Amino acid sequence: QVQVVESGGGLVQAGGSLKLSCTASGLTLEDFAMAWFRQAPGKEREGASCITIRSGVVYYAASVKGLFTVSRDNVKHNTVNLQMNSLKPEDAAIYYCAANVYSYCSDFWRLEGRYRYWGQGTQVTVST
Predict the structure, then answer these.
(1) Closest CA to 34 of 65, 63, 85, 77
(2) Fewer Cβ atoms within 10 A, N terminus or C terminus of the chain?
(3) How far apart are CA 68 and CA 105, in angstroms?
(4) φ and ψ at 15, to 5 degrees?
(5) Cβ(34)–Cβ(100) under 8 Å?
(6) CA-based nearest residue to 20, from 128, 120, 127
């Protein structure tokens, strides 16, 4: 049974940093691309970042590029991390991790239909 579990959410002050982790089980991570989506209150869910595990190619939404970094954990190889720096109040959201039905991200990585497995989400709150 495939499971995708996010962790690391919490409360952080504006300008601070937070690292989210996504641990996948029941699948071979190299066979998937993994993405982070987020949903703020009253807004639609949007893609934040995607990583093709085999190649390490990454994609970022314009709003987080240069601030967020997605990577595969060097020790826990079934885990993908999202390092978030210089957080702003508008970054507050529920962050979801998802496994792509394809093994690679692409220009269409934001399309939710490309993702087969989703986590339950982890809450990120940014205080001013």
Answers:
(1) 77
(2) N
(3) 17
(4) 95, -10
(5) yes
(6) 120
**Nearest in space to 38 (alpha carbons), one of 124, 128, 127:** 124
Residue written as tokens 């792509």? Answer: 100
Long-range contacts of 70-73, Cβ-Cβ distance < 8 Å, separation of 24 or more: 70/34, 70/36, 72/29, 73/21
Residues in CB range of 68: below 8 A, 6 or more apart: 36, 48, 49, 60, 82, 83, 84, 85
Nearest by Cα to 81 from 73, 92, 90, 91:
73
44-102 per-position pLDDT tens digit:
999 999 999 999 999 999 999 999 999 999 898 899 999 999 999 999 999 999 999 88
* Burial profile 88-110: b = 16 or more Cβ within 10 angstroms, e = fewer: eeebbbbbbbbbbebeebeeebb
